[in-house]
Amino acid sequence: MKELRYIKCDYSYADYSTSVSPAIERALADGDAPNTVVLNIFSSDSITSGVLDDAEKAIDLDFCREHNIVVRRRQNTGGAIFGPKRSAFLCLYLIPQSLSLPLTNISDAFRITLEGLAEAINQKWGIDAVYRPLNDLQVQGRKLVPSSARLEKGILTMRLMVNVVKTNRTTLDLAIRTIAEKIQDKEIKRLGQRFTCLESEIGHRPKQSELEDMALLAIRKIFADDVKLVGAPLTAKELKYSREYERKFNSEEFLYGNSERVRFKNAPPQAIKSEGRHKAVAGLVRVTLLKLNGKIFDLIITGDFHPSPYGVVGDIEDALRGKECDLEVVRSELEKIYARDDVEMAGIDIDDFMMSFEKALAP
Fold it and tell me: Which portions of the chain are predicted below pLDDT 50?
């Protein structure tokens, strides 16, 4: 039987995402922590953008400042996510190989964990929650559980955020920027209308004990009942790491780290900026180019997709920087990167990138 550490805590969504979560990942990678499951029930409202996105394009930062909504850029992929007080995180930090689990790629990790959570929610409350590839759990087309995954150096992190309480939909619509390409294939167009929560679906606000029951049931479903949870706190080393990450991820330097204001700040004034966006199965792919004398002077690839390893996005940028503004050149470099054994682009293929580059390179 597989043994996992089980932690219950009550950090805000942003605080947990940018301090506790990376601390557990680091300790696990260093061999200083066991395979771990965490249930965190948020203590206050907050919002984050994904590590591969430009926070200024994903979130209305001015609106959030005016309404005292804490905003941070996390180190995980995915889109901008609002974590209201009393909603919950079910997170898994695992070394799949040590557990003999079929969770060695992003696609399978999303499917197995979200199907397990869907079964638990259905069994607990009779809700018709279904898994929708790549990384959504929905009820009649409305998102109940946004999620993200990280698979780096054999460490798998699954972060499943359960929308528990009703959220002011106007606030949600104004805080998170809606990109046209993101909703072109959806029947419900407004962001606030595309989300649901347990409170709305079951007719009452779940108690903490109900959420704990849901989490334990989901873990049993994910691990096919072959699991034992052992309650334990964060270690002293994890708390130390958490304080270090809090200083790093709370900084404006990190928040704007993938923005044009930082990455294009030394661009020559004669460089021409253009942008192309495309919605793939895995999420939005945005390409922002600086073109100069027929070449790609610089570029930023952003979005809410889930590549593995994360650094492959930087590898694509490095491969194309200084190259001719030619689609065949772009495709050739992408093919080289996709051919690497260490690269997984779940839900996004070369043609998805090419759609964005074609728009960005158009005259």
Answer: 188-189
Q: What is the Cα–Cα distance from 263 to 261, expressed in whole angstroms?
A: 6
What is the token pair recorded at 248?
């790093």
Residue 153: phi and psi, rounded to 5, are 55, 40
Query: Which helix (H) or strand (E) element contains residue 335?
Result: helix 327-338
Would you state the pLDDT for residue 184?
55
- 244 with 269, same domain: the answer is no
**Are residues 168 and 32 both part of a single domain?**
yes
State the residue for tokens 């649901």: 196
Q: Tell whether 209 and 305 lie within a shared domain.
A: no
* Ramachandran class of 294: left when φ > 0, alpha when ψ lies in -120 to 50, beta otherwise: left
Asked if residue 216 and residue 275 are part of one domain, the reply reads no
Q: What is the pLDDT of residues 170-193, one digit of tens each?
A: 888 899 998 766 555 555 445 556
Do 105 and 73 sit in the same domain of this protein?
A: yes
pLDDT in tens, 234-243: 999 999 999 9
Q: Which two tokens stand for residue 104?
A: 């060695």
CB 248 within 8 A of CB 266: no
